Amino acid sequence: MADPIAVLALRKKRDEISGVIAHYERLLREAQHDLAHINSSLRLFEATGEAADLPPYVDLNRVLKRGETTKICMDALTAEGPLDARQLALRVIRAKGLSESDKVLAQTVALRVVQTLRMRARRNKVDCITNTKGVCVWRVYEGGWKPKELPLE
C-alpha cells in the first residue's frame, strides 16, 4: 500500500531541512575555524615581546632576531667551553630574560640551538665531541679545516 501524500511531503520536507541544517553546521564550523585564526593572529600582533605576553606556542622569530641564537651560543661556548644543547638553550633563555621554568619554551629553544649549531658545524665552526644518549656536547672547533669523519658501520 502506498504512503499518503501528506507522509511523502513531510519526508521530503524533513530531508530538505536536514540538508539545510547540515549546510549551516558546515558554515558554522568554517566560521569558528576562521575566528580561531583571527584570535591567534590578534594575540601575536598585540604581544609586546615581553615574556609574560607570549603564548605557550611561541614563534621564536619574534623573540630572537636573526643570528642572535648563534651569537649567544658561540659566546657561551667560547667563554665556558663545551656545553650541550640544553645548557646552551638555558643560556639563550637567560640572555633574553624569558622564563626558565617553561618546559615548552626550553624545548623549542633547544631545538633552535641544535639547528643553529648543526649549520655552524657544516661550516667547521663548531664540533660535536660527544654523542651520549642522543645528547651532543658542542665546542668551538680549534683549527682550520676539519676532515669529514666516515660513519662507523
Descriptive report:
- The protein is mainly α and 153 residues long.
- The protein has helices at 5-46, 60-63, 68-80, 85-96, 103-122; strands spanning 83-84, 126-132, 135-140.
- A 3-stranded antiparallel β-sheet has the order 1-3-2.
- The chain starts with a helix and ends in a 13-residue tail after the last strand.
What's a concise summary of this model?
The protein has 153 residues and is mainly alpha-helical. It has 5 helices and 3 strands.
Write the SSE topology.
Layout: H1 5-46, H2 60-63, H3 68-80, E1 83-84, H4 85-96, H5 103-122, E2 126-132, E3 135-140
Antiparallel strand pairs: 1-3, 2-3
Helix pairs in contact: 3-4, 4-5
Keywords:
5 helices; three-stranded antiparallel β-sheet; mainly alpha; 153 residues
Query: Mean pLDDT, as a whole number?
Result: 82
Task: Give the N-terminus to C-terminus distance in angstroms.
Answer: 80 Å
**Poorly predicted residue ranges:** none
Give the biggest sheet. 3 strands, antiparallel
Oligomer description: single chain
Order of helices and strands: HHHEHHEE
How would the global form be characterised? elongated
Q: Hey, roughly how much beta strand do the residues contain?
A: 5-15%
Would you report the number of β strands?
Answer: 3
Strand order of the largest sheet: 1-3-2
- Helical proportion, percent range: 55-70%
* Count of DSSP-assigned helices: 5
Output the radius of gyration. 28 Å
> Structural class of the secondary elements?
mainly alpha
